[in-house]
Input
Amino acid sequence: MIYVLDVSAILGIPLEYPRRAAAIFTDLTDHVRGGRVCYCDEVTKELSRLARDEHAYDWAKSNAGTRRHHGADYSKVEWVTVACPELVDVTASHTVEPSAVYVMAQAIDITERSGEVTVVSEDVHPKPTRLTIHAACEHFGVPSVRLSPFLSGLGLA
Output
């Protein structure tokens, strides 16, 4: 099983586990290096805009080179965009591309290559501008889980 993290999952660690966040990030590093956990390049880019001076961004940036899967190619991103246009936030600035489409493209790409993937996300509440990650996972038939059960499953919570 490979877990794909989105921005909300990474940002959720210090919010839900403020006293244990550093230890959780340290333990997650082993899972990233082992190929069990990944996140796409666009997640790191979005974190740089949303949390540049926070531990979550520092962790993602420091592990960027150790990930086994950096994201899907552009043709897969384009396919996801066409197959589920509701996932695209049309109100976002053209210079601020949210990573949701890229997260789904990465999850689908990994599914096609290895078969077992689960998206980890706290993006569960309906939004007026785009489909949530969890709803997109349902749309594409990709399993998803929230942060707390994911961390518990890894023995980190």
Observations:
- The CA atoms of residues 58 and 121 lie 19 Å apart.
- The chain has a mean pLDDT of 92.
